[in-house]
Design a protein that fits this description.
The chain is built from 22 helices and 24 strands. The chain is α+β, with helices and mostly antiparallel strands.
């Protein structure tokens, strides 16, 4: 990995650790202006300048938005402490302040309708609502900040401040540099200070510190030694402290470069930091004009360069990438933490160089030592590693020979031994190369002991590195593995007491860290289980939605069939059922209107036609009644005995079915008129038939041979959702899609093809004797004789 990329990764990792111990509420320095400098042998002069307000202003009337993070990470003890801090904050705010409480995850959810008094009943109700809210989802930090800024009134006389209580991790929307810059600009343009309490299992303190640096706020970090109530009191004081927002800034001419480009806001409870490059050693001054009538000039004489400020070149190099947008230097305390992080990375390079030298990699050791000295030129361990690597490399080249006598060197090999001198610290000591006067060769026993000790140290270092990588997933298993490693170190025979003690302390520290990590991992597992439950619930809702959509589709198909059959009332009921399931289903909404309108229209047209027909028929009868006819010869009807005789005579000649109908067929005809219910989606025809047989208690068969002739089978899928109609209509609708029909024959209901059904005919005989009027020979027809009205030209 290139040196620069490795350094930036180390810086990012160490900032997350170093700032975790930062309580950004430092006291103001005695001097209002302080200019520290650092200059390399041949290079520019770097500086860090601290400016602060000399007087402390009283709290001013303020509008405060309190944003409590309610994402899934804020559960358990973190949620309890967050709410306790928010309550202590409200109790500590002055009575003339106006506050608004929000719960935040993906979006800001107001707990109060507007700005209210911090000690009123509205706040109590808001906290009750907040406590009922379940911590779920992830956090969109940019959305929360922008929503908070939008709630403030337009009054320029009030101090505006946001107090965010959460971990600062924006997992729902990872902020890009452009988005982060927009958030900072929104805060500065609206003159809103951003204060925060970093609390949670995985806190992004670097982001919160950067926002506080650019938006004139502070950062409190959750700490076991500081009660939640005390953190709330500090946040209340910070939220009501006035902030000076720079409008114009002018540096002295000897300032060649300065970061951040936008001068940070000024507060009375902490100083503000800028870093950059100087052209000369003249006095550094800065004139700031800000909100209201504020105008102030700070001047300071650059201090003599010293190695304590050796971090400045690397810090400014990082700041150049984004004009200082990601500088987390919240006051002098933030600058000191950033410096310690940068200097710690030099120590890491030196340690890696020591390990490389112990492993015989002289080239790698020299490179790592150079990287460490680029950060801290006076680093003693890095200088020792560089010298030892150069000396070992020189000796190796001097002792190389063209050939080696394998027999002579079987038991003795020239060895360059690197010893580590203990300087009294817990870290690995700087390596020194033994000279010729100390003995160039060691006996095999001593050499093996030294090698085994170095192997054990390297193995412990690798195992500790692997354990730290596994702590986030399996802390309990990692703890057990570390205990086993500790036991192996205790029993290793080739370790000196001081090395054994150092390795023991490292392993015990890692064991304690894994025990602490177990709590956060358990919280993460609970969060993952909660997310899984939410995912399952969403899948179930999706499946239910698909089922409802399929049911709606089937019912609307039945609606079309009922409309085609002219059953408008049943069609209206079907459309209303779908509309009740999905009020936004446009087909169902239109279907209700169409069924109602068309049904009423058809009924009115039928009545109209019937009225016209009956009126014409009635008028025709009136016209007929105007036609006279003679009663000669008269019509003579038989007497009552004759009618009674033919009535009883025809009873034995009722409807005669040449094919006798048994009780089974009678039951089938009865069930065909019975109401049924069919609800199937891609169900084989055979299963549908079995269901209907069991439901109606009749025998239903499938004509397999006829179905095979038309390319169908009993596995043909059926999709229908029908209820509230007769079995006869349901069978017709269902079988119509398959080009099939049914017949009742041989005491079964047979499902077959229309062609096969036409070949099955039933013959019935009906008596019609009573339709014939017996006329005697003496009785003539109406109009008989001459010119009758309806008759012909002759007799009966």
């Amino acid at each position: 990995m290139p040196k620069r990329e490795h350094f930036e990764q180390c810086l990012s990792a160490f900032l997350a650790i170093g700032l975790a111990v930062l309580m950004v509420a430092p006291a103001v320095a005695d001097d209002a202006t302080f200019v520290a400098t650092y200059q390399q042998a041949a290079g520019p002069r770097y500086f860090a300048m601290s400016v602060s307000l000399e007087e402390k202003s009283d709290a001013s009337p303020s509008e405060v938005v309190v944003m409590v993070d309610t994402s899934a990470s804020q559960a358990g003890i973190y949620r309890t402490d967050s709410i306790a801090t928010a309550k202590a904050l409200m109790a500590s705010l002055p009575a003339d302040c106006r506050v608004q409480l929000f719960a935040g995850d993906i979006m800001a959810v107001p707990m109060t309708g507007s700005f209210v008094s911090p000690q009123g009943s509205e706040i109590s109700e808001a906290f009750a609502k907040l406590e009922r809210r379940v911590p779920l989802g992830a956090t969109d930090l940019a959305e929360l900040i922008n929503d908070s800024v939008a709630t403030f009134t337009k009054s320029s006389k009030l101090n505006r401040s946001i107090v965010y209580i959460g971990d600062g991790s924006s997992r729902a929307n990872f902020l890009s540099p452009t988005e982060f810059e927009e958030v900072v600009s929104n805060l500065r343009d609206n003159k809103v200070a951003f204060n925060s309490l970093a609390i949670g299992p995985d806190r992004n303190i670097e982001t919160l510190a950067t926002l506080a640096n650019h938006a004139g706020g502070i950062v409190e970090v959750d700490n076991r030694d500081i009660p939640s109530e005390q953190a709330g009191v500090r946040l209340a004081a910070a939220a009501t402290t006035p902030v000076i927002w720079p409008a114009s800034v002018k540096f002295s001419e000897n300032v060649a470069e300065v970061f951040p480009k936008q001068f940070p806001p000024l507060r009375a409870d902490r100083d503000s930091i800028v870093v950059g490059v100087l052209d000369s050693d003249a006095i550094v001054s800065v004139e700031v004009k800000g909100s209201g009538a504020f105008s102030r000039t700070w001047s300071g004489e650059p201090q003599t360069t010293n190695d304590d400020q050796a971090y400045l070149p690397q810090l400014i190099e990082l700041a150049r990438k984004d004009d200082g947008l990601n500088l987390p230097t919240v006051g002098s305390a933030g600058l000191r933490e950033t410096a310690s992080v940068l200097m710690a990375s030099a120590e890491q390079y030196a340690k890696l160089g020591s390990q490389a030298l112990a492993a015989g990699d002289n080239v790698g050791a020299a490179r790592l030592a150079k990287a460490a000295m680029d950060i801290d030129p006076g680093h003693p361990r890095a200088q020792a590693v560089a010298n030892a690597a150069a000396k070992a490399d020189k000796e190796t080249k001097a002792e190389e020979k063209p050939s080696v006598d394998r027999g002579a060197s079987m038991h003795r090999v020239p060895v360059h031994f690197v010893a580590f001198q203990n300087d009294g610290s817990n870290d690995s000591a700087a390596p020194l190369t033994l000279g010729d006067e100390d003995g160039r060769f060691l006996n095999d026993v001593d050499l093996n002991a030294v090698r085994n000790a170095r192997i054990i140290e390297a193995e412990v270092a690798n195992r500790l590195a692997a354990a730290r990588g596994q702590m986030s997933t399996d802390p309990n298993g990692t703890r057990d593995a570390l205990k086993l490693l500790l036991d192996n170190v205790e029993r290793a025979p080739d370790l000196s007491p001081d090395v054994r003690a150092r390795l023991r302390n490292q392993i015990i520290a890692a064991i304690r860290e894994s025990s602490a990590r177990a709590v956060s991992v358990e919280a993460q597992r609970a969060e993952a289980a909660e997310r899984e439950a939410i995912a399952r619930e969403r899948i179930a809702l999706t499946e239910q939605l698909l089922r409802d959509e399929e049911r709606a589709r089937v019912i609307m198909e039945m609606f079309d069939a009922l409309m085609d059959e002219g059953k408008y009332s049943e069609a209206l009921t079907s459309a209303q059922e779908v509309r009740a399931m999905d009020p936004y289903n446009q087909a169902a909404v239109a279907g209700v209107e169409i069924a109602d309108i068309v049904g009423n229209y058809r009924s009115m047209m039928a009545l109209k036609e019937l009225r016209y027909q009956r009126m014409v028929d009635t008028l025709f009868e009136v016209e007929k009644s105007h036609v006279p006819f003679p009663d000669e010869p008269p019509i003579v009807y038989p007497d009552a005995e004759f009618w009674e005789e033919i009535y009883y005579r025809k009873e034995k000649y009722g409807s005669v079915d040449l094919a006798s109908t048994g009780s089974a067929e009678q039951k089938i005809f009865q069930q065909l008129e019975a109401e049924t219910k069919i609800q199937f989606i891609d169900t084989p025809l055979e299963e549908v038939v079995g269901y209907l047989k069991q439901l109606h208690g009749i025998e239903i068969q499938i004509d397999n041979r006829s179905l095979e002739d038309v390319g169908l089978s009993t596995d043909t899928p059926v999709t229908r959702n029908i209820e509230g109609i007769s079995l006869r209509s349901a069978l017709r609708l269902m079988l119509k899609e398959l080009d099939l029909t049914y017949i009742v024959a041989n005491e079964v209901l047979m499902i077959t093809t229309p062609e096969e059904a036409e070949s099955e005919l039933i013959t019935k005989v009906y008596p019609v004797a009573d339709l014939v009027l017996p006329v005697s020979a003496q009785v003539g027809t109406l109009g008989g004789g001459g010119n009758g009205v309806n008759g012909g030209n002759g007799g009966g």
